[in-house]
What does this fold into?
Amino acid sequence: MSSIAGLIAFLFAFSLPLVSACPAYAFDTALDRGEQIFSTNCAACHMGGGNVIRASRSLKLRDLNAHLEQYPQDPLEALEHQIEDGKNAMPAYADQLSEADIVAVATYVEQQAELGW
It folds into this structure.
């Protein structure tokens, strides 16, 4: 009986690192997907977190806090809303990107803003 308990403990200990590694891999994949979508759809106007049309409306943290409604309270939701609906010269992407893609781009933008682009 003790050999079965030992085998179960061994299998559990061996599989735990594999299971805990999966969420990190999925998160990296989502960020990679967000970066890819950003490069394809957004970088022409927002290369390096800037804004070629209105310099004061960059994707840098200070400008997001100053110009994007609700950013200080809920950054991801504010970014998702902006991506979905667009505003002024920025087109809306709700009909072009899936919800998962919009979340991936918003996550990527938030991460880059936090890192200072």
Observations:
- Residues 26-115 form a domain with the Cytochrome Bc1 Complex; Chain D, domain 2 fold (CATH 1.10.760.10).
- The chain is about 70% helix and 0% strand.
- The first helix runs from residue 2 to 41.
